[in-house]
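ESCALATION

Customer reports they have been waiting on this structure for their group meeting. Please prioritize. Original submission:
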Amino acid sequence: MKRFRFGLIALVSLVPASGQAQKAYITNGSDNTVSVIDTTTNTAIGSPITVGPFPLGVAVTPDGSTVYVTNHHSNTVSTIDTVTDTVSGTLISVGLSPFGVAVTPDGSKVYVANSGATSVSVIDTATNTVSATIPVGSVPTGVAVTPDGSTVYVTHETFLSGTVSAIDTATNTVSATIPVGSLPFGVAVTPDGGRVYLTHIGGNTVSVIDTTTNTVIGSPITVGFAPYGLAVTPNGNEVYVANSSLRGNSVSVIDTTTNTVSATIPVGSAPTGVAVTPDGGKVYVANFLSNTVSVIDTATNTVIDSPIPVGNDPTAFGAFIQPAPRFAGTPGSKNCRGTSVSALATKFGGIDAAANALGFSDVRTLQDAIQAFCEG
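Update from on-call: job pushed to the front of the queue and completed.
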């Protein structure tokens, strides 16, 4: 296959709600576009969004309002407004051949792996300008942030001495360099922040890092051929791994209790990016050579519906699905619902606009979700 090296007040927990949908943003490399998928209907909606040359990496901010897309061939990052699904602002210049991208949990910073350089660019989301450039190892590719926002893990796709850099976000310096073996590529952190899972694209394996000691634990987990992207379910019980080689065309499911493969799921041709919905019910897989996205039901680990047509050479390397919306207030507090409604109305210019922007079918459904959240 072809492969390229290269707000709200007092925000608290996430709320999966009946009737509320997230959108998935799929980078189409050869088209210079991003396709948008409605995860309720499993259909592509609107016209593909034109971004920069050869988009690869993608990450959605925690509030779901903005998508950051790395444009591999122009050394830039595009931003997409998820309310209008249009490009917002100007291109952000970063380092050479940007690949992976991730946003901190507080939404204040975006970390971009510049695979053609030995650096990671840090974007300040308040200004959408680069606030720091961090020297790291060769060929930085995948990026993931711990849930507490303290550490960014970056893979280095090198052959004989593959490593992962751990970046301290308080100082934007490398705090540890972890030897992991040949060609580390995709990376994801478990919801409890205790482990990092990473693919070895040339070794058909996945390694596991203990974040307390920043060392590899256990033996490599054998998966399918040329594992690319991966994603952990919200409950931390499974890791879904896209096996990109045409010899596999599959997704491996790792049971995190035993760190063994519990299922292998056939998908489209050359699967690359993979992401899980906020409720953990579905997994979306970008099929690079099929120009489609497959949807997996996590309850049965089978593909549901027909493949969703997108653009040419979809990659979707990163966390490409919108998170569930966040509401203001503290669950259990008497004024939580009023605070949440007021904050949403202020942010979006009315509660009707808020329901539409957050993907709820109507205002009543949004109000029910707020009520459920506030009851704790």
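Sent to customer with the following note: Helices lie at 336-348, 351-357, 363-374.
Escalation resolved.
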